[in-house]
Each structure stands twice: as structure tokens, then as C-alpha cells.
Amino acid sequence: MNPDEIKRYARHLVLKDIGGPGQQKLKAATVLVIGAGGLGAPASLYLAAAGIGTLGLMDHDTVSLSNLQRQVLFKTDDVGAPKTKAAARALQTLNPHMALNLHEGRFDKHAVAVLDGYDLVLDGTDNFAARFAINDACHKKNKPLVSGAAIGFEGQVACFHSHTHKTACYRCLVPTMPDEGDTCESVGVIGALTGVIGSMMALEAIKIITNAGTPLYGRLMIFDGLGGQCRTLTLPPDRACPLCGNQPPADKSA
Q1: What is the DSSP string of the chain?
Q2: Which residue would you say has higher pLDDT here, 176 or 86?
Q3: Domain membership flag for residue 249
Q4: Which of 11, 53, 198, 224 is at 20 to 30 A from 45, Cα to Cα?
Q5: Domains of the chain: total
Q6: Global pTM value
Q7: Per-residue pLDDT tens for 79-124?
């Protein structure tokens, strides 16, 4: 690390669970954030600030005025711009030492190759089709996955690495594709909640990369913003899971 980086990451370097070796792991890490919205925005900011060496951003959307209530990467002047490009401007201003890869488009089962070259994936998407596709791709490519969700005043975070660690995958938590039901657009979401959950996702990613503490593998953390309460549930693998259990996932396109 050069003198600027040593000063920039000084508060990490004195942490006994991070230190110089951990900071070097962060610098060498490649992380893909899928969804530059309410969760991906704060997660990306904290990963960039932490010194992730290469950060990938994937999103298909443009910045809208209604995003600004919670998507803290963006400014009013960014309205109408592609989210990946607007995010890149903000993140490189924050940390010029970081490399950025931009992937414009939606993540689906045809985008599995996007994961190549990344050590870790964060899922900040807002629909079940994308979450299922990302989970399946991470299992297939043996990538650890940090998944978050938020609606109203409640959010959740979990980590999955079903291929290597034999922990639960997202399909163990949600076995079949549900109807989309309520969304943030229909029922709302408090902006600060997405900051809490997105920051927790970044924290879990940093723990995984540096081997600090105990990541949320096999556990689901649920945060109740209205009640000011947090609880963590055990999430065991489902032996009947169509992905990581005894049966491979059905290819519905066949």
C-alpha cells in the first residue's frame, strides 16, 4: 500500500480482526454488486470506502427522482442517467484506488458468465426471478453470496455458500418462486432502512473476504426498524432443495 492508502485505511489497519493482512485481502478482492438500488447503493459505497480492489456493478435501470429518497449513490443531476455510470462517477470520486467494472443489463439465467472473475457476489435486486437466477448461478459457479431485502420498515440479510460450505442456499429459504406480491413501489420503504441493510451486506462481505468474525452462513438476520429489534434465525440446508439438495433444478426452458 502506498502512503495515501495507509492513511485512508488507518482505522482498518489498527483493527485486530483486519489489520494489514486483512486490508491486503480487501485490495486483492473482486466483488460484484447486482442491483445499484436501495441496497446496492450503500453497500457499494461502503465496499469502495473499505478498499475493495475491483468492484463490479450490474444494473439495467436509469436514475429516477423517486430513487433519491434511499439510493444514496445518486444526486438530482443524475436523474435520467444509467445507474451504473452515475454510480461509477460517485464511487471513483470516493476512492480512486479502486477498479470498476460496469455491467449494464438485467441478471437472468443467461448472464451466469458475468460472475467469472469475481470472488463474491452481493444481491441487491428487488424481485424473486432475479434472486433465484443469482442464487442458482452462485451455486453453479461456487461463489459466496450475500443477499439482502427490505420493504416497509423490515429488512433481512443472509449469506449463502451452498456449494463449498454446504450451507443453505436461497432456495432453501424460498423453495418455489412466489408471486411478487407487495413491493416497495406498492407499499413503500423507509429510506434509512435500506441504508441499514445495505451496510450490513457490505459488512458481511468484508467479513467473508478478511475471515473476520462469523458470517451469516446458515443464518437469516431480520431487522425490525419500527420496533428497533433484530433477531437471527438458523437456516438449515433443505435436503429436498431442487438446487443444493438431492435433485438438480428443473430447467423450465426445456
Answers
A1: --HHHHHHTHHHHT-TTTHHHHHHHHHH-EEEEE--STTHHHHHHHHHHHT-SEEEEEE--B--GGGGGT-TT--GGGTTSBHHHHHHHHHHHH-TTSEEEEEES---GGGGGGGTT-SEEEE--SSHHHHHHHHHHHHHHT--EEEEEEEBTEEEEEEE-TTTT----HHHHS-S-----S-HHHH-B-HHHHHHHHHHHHHHHHHHHHT-S---BTEEEEEETTTTEEEEEE----TT-TTTSSSPPP-TT-
A2: 86
A3: no
A4: 224
A5: 1
A6: 0.92
A7: 999 999 999 999 999 999 999 999 999 998 888 999 999 999 999 9
